[in-house]
Predict the structure.
Amino acid sequence: MATDQVIFKNVSFRYAEDQPWVLKNVSFSIKQDEWVAILGHNGSGKSTIAKLMNGLLFPDEGTIYVHGIEVTPDTVWDIREKVGMVFQNPDNQFVGTTVRDDVAFGLENRGVDREIMLNRIEESLKSVRMTDYLFHEPHRLSGGQKQRVAIAGVLAIQPDLIILDEATAMLDPRGRKEIMMTVNDLREETKVNLVSITHDLNEIVGADRVIVMNDGEIWLETVPRELFKQEESLREIGLDVPFTAKVTNRLKDTVDFDQQPLTQKELLDQLWIFHSKQ
Amino acid sequence: MASSLIIGQYVPADSVVHKLDPRTKIMMIFTFVVVIFFANNAYSYLWLTVFSLSAAALTKIKPHFLLKGLKPVWFLIVFTFLLHLFVTREGDVLTTIFGLPIYSGALIQGFQISLRFFLLILITSLLTLTTTPIEITDAIETLLHPLKKIKFPVHELALMMSISLRFIPTLMQETEKISKAQASRGVDFKTGPLKERIQAVVPLLVPLFVSAFKRAEELAMAMEARGYRGGEGRTRLRELEIVRRDYMAIGLFLIVMIGLFVLRT
């Protein structure tokens, strides 16, 4: 129990009695300081998992433990204390009238003293590089900036677990890059459990482990490197591998790779090493 | 477009009036609105006019901004003056216009009422010109705090106000987007008879409402996820503080009020 931060035990969920199951008998666990990516196309049940993790929804069958506490309507506030969540739509999670007020919102809810609040706001805005925008109103920020503020708001509460629920889905490529850079920086700076939910395989490169969801069931649990090899079967469940992986998979017959490259740089390195050997 | 958008009438400037605690401003203005009805002679009116104009000058806001705020009420001020001029029958007949006698009392009465009206508008607009909407919200929350005892949802009201303020620009941008989308589908907002133009608003309002409800739902979920569970046990980042400046302003204001009661007959 000590090392497993999140445990899903035979969890099933549906939104209403007469509706089909969204999650069917799902079990998995997330270890301390691990970054787990949950991958799946629309309607695969991946966002439901996020909402179950901090008690926005409750399972119909099975149990969920977060930090050793079972998620029930009675414990939900204790769990949310230490779980931060970033949602998909940048506009619909910005509560404050300015960046500063928005980052403060979570702290105000937890009854944090004003002096500590000011410190935490400064620190968390620094780690997402938004310090210059302290008094900006949301309509003067880009989507990526708003999501960075949302991440700062989560960091400010010093969570043990951060859930990114398709945090980049509504952003342009630039905003997406901003967020992925911020997340990667965070992983290096702080020890925190991270669950990122996405349908974009480009975003799982940094993850320690990937859980692929399909039709409410766990389809595969693996590491990104292994997953990129399965281009064909991924396509069948509506997922597309990144360009790097595609190139690698086409070249497999001619080039012999030590391991599946994750990034463009890794691919290039392996290619020139192969080339110089010949 | 978005960067120049200012909600309400707030005009930023570095002045004493801007820096005053919003509660001080609200209370002074409320008192002024009541007290102005006690003025009953030329001296007392002059006294209040001097006060109002100096307060306006202290804000360092350019006069044309102040006048812009008064624009919609000019007509009312002139109208009240004329009404009193023709209707009141006191004092001596001075002259006749269009066969109607003009009394001296009417001239004074009309002048007094429109001056009072002008001062009221000027002073109240100073509040919105020098105070951001969010400051006003905070002030209302603290001023209404005692009402919590009778179960009045003060915190919820203030939160509603601040969320509405935050979403005004978002919804305005959305309105613009929807109206462009509908215009590209052939909805004509700008020409045609009034009835048709009103009907054209329907395809604008329906999507706007649908999306506003969706936003509200998502926002509520995000707020819950961020640990919001009502006003109990919450701390506040934005703090209002009555400082020396405020005491001095209140003191000065009291002197003006005492002066008024000395001057009136």
Observations:
- The first strand of chain B starts at residue 93 and ends at 97.
